[in-house]
Model the fold of this input.
Amino acid sequence: MANRYWCGECSFKTSWHGESEGLRRQVEHYAAAHPGVAPGGQVETRRRGAGERYGCLRLAAVALVLLAVVAACRH
Done:
C-alpha cells in the first residue's frame, strides 16, 4: 500500500510512498516549515492497483468513441 501524508499546519502533502518514506518526508517538512511543532495531520492510504481495475475497459471505450467520431466525420 502507498501512503500520502498531509500536513496539519499547511496545505503540504507528500507524494505517494511507502509508510517509512512518507513519514520521513513529513518529518522533514515539519522540521523545515514548522520548527518546534510535532508532526500531525492526516494519512491517506491507497491500495496498489486502485483505479487500474477498469483501465483496459476505459481505453476500449475511448477507442470506440474516437472510432465513431472518425466514421461520422468521413461521411
